[in-house]
Amino acid sequence: MRILQLVWNRMEAYGGMQSHIRAMSAALERLGAQVIRYELPSRNPYHRVFPGDSPRLPLQDVAAVLEHIVDAEDIDSIDTHNLLAGHAPGVPAVVAECGKKRGLPHLTTVHDMPNGEVISAAHRTETEAILRSATVIVTSDANYRAFAELFWLPAAIIPPATDFSAFSSVGPPDPRTIAYPGRLVPYNIRVR
């Protein structure tokens, strides 16, 4: 099985989503799948491309480039992460349409849900159409509740796991260990 994995974030960076995606890729490869990863085009300056990064799809002609990759790589399935993020409007719909045209299964993981913020009606409509074409995974009970309230669609909950071996100075955890792998940055989405 050849799986096309499409992500917004640089996989060379450390973070919860990146750790989840790297672990998922490794598990799939141990099961015999081949994972081909590309970064989605993004207007977010955080997603700059650095030397050695996974290739990023171009914003211009993304549909044609994506279809070429799917055909050339003989892709069997599409795996996406955090399509709710509006880093490049229209791109998630292109991904869903490409998979739909070729009859490919699409698995998408929702890592972050808007936390009480309002998303635009256009973004919500586009996102809901994409989510309806995919099998959806959310990463926590809180995300599940927020997802169900916003979209009323089925989703499976697969919580993130912390690999304590990545924190060599900590050592093995005892049963009372609390891990807080989070980003301490402002998260402020404005109502439109």
Quick structural overview:
This protein is an alpha/beta fold. Helix content is 32%, strand content 15%.
What key attributes describe this structure?
single chain; 192 residues; alpha/beta; Rossmann fold; six-stranded parallel sheet
Order of helices and strands: EHEHEHEHEHE
- For this entry, what is the oligomeric state of its chains? single chain
Percent strand equals 5-15%
**CATH superfamily annotation:** Glycogen Phosphorylase B
Mean pLDDT: 77
Most strands sheet: 6 strands, parallel
Shape: globular
Number of strands: 6
Specify the number of helices.
Answer: 5
Q: Are there runs of 5+ residues with pLDDT below 50, and where?
A: 183-192
- CATH topology call: Rossmann fold
Structure description:
This protein is an alpha/beta fold. The protein has a single domain (2-166), classed as Rossmann fold. Helices cover 32% and strands 15% of the residues. It is built from five helices and six strands, in the order βαβαβαβαβαβ. It has helices at 16-30, 62-72, 91-102, 121-132, 141-151; strands spanning 2-7, 34-39, 77-81, 106-110, 135-138, 156-157. Strands 2-1-3-4-5-6 form a six-stranded parallel sheet. Helix 2 (62-72) runs parallel beside helix 3 (91-102) and helix 3 (91-102) runs parallel beside helix 4 (121-132). It is globular. The model is unreliable at 183-192 (pLDDT under 50).
